[in-house]
Design a protein that fits this description.
Length: about 80
């Protein structure tokens, strides 16, 4: 994504920058169970659609997953 940041729409570039600013994964992804519950059928590869769904259900996410999506939740408001 970084190599093609100038080739995408501004909205996609903004999403990519927010995603890149998130803390890297450590061990197992802390949001797998929450993602399966909140947005079945979607994955992080679905990009903004996945992120929007996860941030919309932020209050129902596990504390570890909330920490991961905290910056995106604030940006969405």
């Amino acid at each position: 994504m970084r190599a093609h940041i100038n080739d995408v729409t501004p909205a996609c570039a903004a999403w990519g920058k927010k995603r890149a600013a998130m803390k890297p994964k450590t061990g197992n992804d802390v949001c797998v169970a929450d993602a399966k519950k909140v947005c079945p059928g979607l994955t992080v590869m679905d990009g903004p659609k996945f992120t929007t769904r996860m941030t919309a259900h932020y209050d129902g996410l596990s504390p570890a997953c909330q920490a991961k999506f905290k910056g995106l939740k604030a940006a969405a408001e």
